Amino acid sequence: MELTLKKRKRNTIIPGFSLTLGYTMLYLSVIVLLPLSMVFFNTLSLSWSELWETIAHPRAVASYKLSFGTALAAGLINVVFGTIIAWVLVRYQFPGKRIVDGLVDLPFALPTAVAGIALATLYSPNGWIGQFFDFKIAFTPIGIVIALIFIGLPFVVRTVQPVLQNLSREIEEASASLGATRLQTFTKVIFPELLPAIITGFSLAFARSLGEYGSVVFIAGNMPMKTEITPLIIMTKLEQYDYVGATAIATVMLVTSFALLLLINIIQWYTNRKFNVQ
Amino acid sequence: MSIHIQNVSKAFGSFQALEDISIDIESGELIALLGPSGSGKTTLLRILAGLEGLDEGAILFDGQNITNVSPKEREVGFVFQHYALFRHMTVFDNVAYGLKVRPRKTRPSKEEIKKKVTELLALVKLDNFADRYPSQLSGGQRQRVALARALAVEPKVLLLDEPFGALDAKVRKELRRWLRKLHNEFHVTSIFVTHDQEEALDVANRIIVMNNGKIEQVGTPEEVYEHPNSPFVYDFLGNVNLFRGRLHKGKLTQGEFEIDVPTYLDSHDDAVGYVRPHDIQIEKEQLNNESVAAKIVHIHMVGPIVQIELKREDVDEYLEAEIPKEHYKQLHIKNGDTVYIRPKQLRVFIPEDYSI
Amino acid sequence: MTKPLEVKQESSISIRSGATKSYALQESAFVKWSLITISLVFLSLFLILPLVSIFVTALEKGWATYVASITNPDALAAIKLTLTVVLIVVPLNAIFGIVAAWAITKFSFKGKNVLITLIDLPFAVSPVIAGLVFILLFGAQGVFGDWLFQNDIKIVFALPGIVIATMFVTFPFVARELIPLMQMQGITEEEASISLGASGWKTFFLVTLPNIKWGLLYGLILCNARTIGEFGAVSVVSGHIRGMTNTMPLHIEILYNEYQFTSAFAVASLMSILAIITIIIKNIIEWKVKDV
């Protein structure tokens, strides 16, 4: 630090380097890094067998499968419909488009608990939508998927939309004048351009879904082994003052999330390097 | 393939991009569409490719009306100003694209595609770049890939939209020469859009000068340069000196200057005489009142032509003259000298129907 | 204010509608309207109907019940607590965001990208874990548990716990809006200001702040929305003490679990109105920025 600081002083006349960087590091450490590191320190206090017993407990494993599976399903559904919505919002004109465009941000702005009770009521067996289905939606994994679709949708739409907007019209024209049909132009030219954004949007939605709590607990039913998501297991363990168990499960989740974060960064770095003009 | 453009008009909202354009283009011509930005030249090119619709008129390819034929069926090769290469495909895949998207019945086999693409890459001297991505190429190389890609589908017409606009001067010159060579080999009817008069004069067999959605003049480079038929063309192609004066009994007068213009015997109007810098004669003595005194302000002496900036002594106006270096040496003139200038060739336009 | 945008859209329509009817450049009307319909149905099922149902359910039993639900002492206490949290968390995170963005965008130093990633970290952490970490720090069995108990300081199950957990969750919002914006704007204006003799503070207030005001506001309203609505993390650290440590979302949860649906949705409708206002402000900012 000392060294970089001295170097900077020679290069810039803008003041405040040590003050702002120092404050940033301090605040970051106190609010984020130190608290987060507690999870790993507490996990270290466990022996391997204890740790394994907690994280490989059938109920925990069932929750991983559920959380992973529902997040994956919701993510894939959002990829399809989110891309269609982004396409419609960028390429077409229709009445009420502005309002629809604004509404896409609703999941970012609406408290998760509010979304949770609204979806649970709507999709319950006698709810507005639930009554039209022969099978149960709320209180089953399908209900969890619905809550996660709600939470994840804007991630996909808002990452694909700007890319589509900035896509040069010329490559489509080039494709058409080379004899391609519209469908060929979409699959061979437009889709590959959108793919990195779609993958990024999916990963963001997926990562958020894995940890999502507020919107899911109301619609999930929370039956152990069946509709109990991983964050709920942590919650339950906390309520039973089983801090060690909660911490162990939290470690599994954190490691997964960080791996995902790393993956997203690698994808972005890779696509930037490969396709972008220097 | 011959092209007939018949009474084509096109408007974008209230902006009239093209107004009643008619041109006939012979098979195998190399045409430059020349004009300032907003003159409608790119719109016309895009209409030919089917990328833009037209409001009125018709386009005929070899006598066949293709006005409503979709771009994919027009057999037109289009080269975009910014290349429009598919950046997620290699150079090879870019060039092969037009062949790969054909319906199965007419699609060449893999080996045929490979052979064709390899040939084309050799033609554009990019044999060793087949596996590169567009982002790994220079601007000139990318434009050559774009050309190869357009040629791969064996188009009957090659349309190029400011093909060298985004390249630096040296590469541009090289590609120009190369485009002409390519055209000599293939004889495919080619039309390119440019706002660079030098490029148009250098490359094309015929130039179509456009302005404000209309055609100003059509002709060979020599015709449009030597005999511009409007003040616009005069001004747009090359430098020009203006003599703003009055017509009186077949003479254009301005200050002490007076010159015969027999074509305008009856006119008594304000008029402007147009003289190319190389049509200005510099003499050390006054011979008659067709010449006028001017002071040399600046002499620019690079290359075989000497450019001389002069300030007229009768009126407060500057002129530019160009004379060969040998002639300059014989004259023995220097900055500050007073000389007499005389237009060797002058064209007069009466300025009510235009403004500059 | 929105005019330029509309003009642009109109011209792009006219280009296409005037064009030859060619499906090589554009989808057929059938495909177009199918896609629009699919989008609208999807959005109705997952976004619009839930939003509408909140207001309908809230007003199901009439206006009087609605007003009673939101003027109930516990509800008012929850609203007050939530506002208190907002007033503490949002300014603190805003200051951090500005300071961090200044350090990151005005200077070059090693490890900058790592720092940016670390700032984004809370987005990758489940809110439940965000609550858990503060229990591990400040809870009775936590690292500082004994010390806090001896000095009679309450953090967990009290306002400080709620504040700090919310701060963790909303930590990156302002910073991540400002960093790309300030990176794009570069440092030339600040350098000019300082070379003309202005102090660092003057430069910030007269040059930098006007340049980033919309981005800052954008970050602020997103941070604000999340602060108001945070549920998981707060749920862990609050202790659910009615009228004391219940924020609005926690209050909704309790009402809902006690089958007081109308009251739950009444409070939920208040929060939905805030969400809609947030979206409107966000769009206004986006139009403003486009105009500039």
The dominant shape of chain A is globular
**Tally of DSSP β-strands of chain C:** 0
- What distance separates the N and C termini of chain A? 31 Å
Uncertain spans of chain C: 1-21
- The assigned structural class of chain A equals mainly alpha
- β-strand percent of chain C reads under 5%
CATH arch. level architecture of the largest domain in chain A? Orthogonal Bundle
Instruction: Spell out the helices and strands of chain A N to C.
Output: HHHHHHHHHHHHH
- The radius of gyration of chain A is 23 Å
Mean pLDDT of chain A: 90
Sheet with most strands of chain C = none
Instruction: Kindly provide the name of the CATH class of the largest domain in chain C.
Output: Mainly Alpha
Protein name (chain C): Sulfate transport system permease protein CysW
Keywords (chain C): Cell inner membrane, Cell membrane, Membrane, Sulfate transport, Transmembrane, Transmembrane helix, Transport
Organism (chain C): Ureibacillus chungkukjangi
Subcellular location (chain C): Cell inner membrane
Please outline the helices and strands.
The complex is a heterotrimer of chains A (278), B (356) and C (292).
Chain A: H1 2-11, H2 17-44, H3 48-55, H4 58-91, H5 97-103, H6 106-109, H7 112-123, H8 141-166, H9 169-177, H10 182-211, H11 214-220, H12 230-239, H13 243-275
Chain B: E1 3-12, E2 15-25, E3 30-34, H1 41-49, E4 56-61, E5 64-65, E6 76-79, H2 91-100, H3 110-123, H4 139-152, E7 157-161, H5 169-186, E8 189-194, H6 197-203, E9 206-211, E10 214-219, H7 221-226, H8 231-236, E11 241-248, E12 251-254, E13 257-260, E14 270-275, E15 280-283, E16 292-301, E17 305-312, E18 318-324, H9 325-331, E19 338-343, E20 347-349
Helix pairs in contact in B: 2-3, 2-4, 3-4
Chain C: H1 3-17, H2 29-58, H3 62-71, H4 73-106, H5 112-120, H6 127-138, H7 145-150, H8 159-170, H9 173-185, H10 188-195, H11 200-229, H12 232-238, H13 248-257, H14 261-291
Helix pairs in contact in C: 2-14, 3-14, 4-8, 4-9, 4-11, 4-13, 6-8, 6-12, 8-11, 8-12, 9-11, 10-11, 11-14, 13-14
General description of the model:
Chain C: GO terms for molecular function: ABC-type sulfate transporter activity. Chain C: Its main location: membrane. The complex is a heterotrimer of chains A (278), B (356) and C (292). By secondary structure, chain A is mainly α. Chain A has two domains: 1-45, no CATH class; 46-275, MetI-like fold (Orthogonal Bundle), CATH 1.10.3720.10. Chain A has 13 helices and no strands. Chain A has helices spanning 2-11, 17-44, 48-55, 58-91, 97-103, 106-109, 112-123, 141-166, 169-177, 182-211, 214-220, 230-239, 243-275. In chain A, helix 4 runs parallel beside helix 8 (141-166). With 356 residues, chain B is α+β, with helices and mostly antiparallel strands. Chain B has nine helices and 20 strands. The two termini of chain B are 38 Å apart. The model of chain B has no long low-confidence stretch (mean pLDDT 88). In chain C, 78% of the residues lie in helices and 0% in strands. Chain C has helices at 3-17, 29-58, 62-71, 73-106, 112-120, 127-138, 145-150, 159-170, 173-185, 188-195, 200-229, 232-238, 248-257, 261-291. Chain C starts with a helix and ends with a helix. At the A-C interface, helix 1, helix 2, helix 4, helix 5 and helix 6 of A face helix 2, helix 4, helix 5, helix 6 and helix 8 of C.
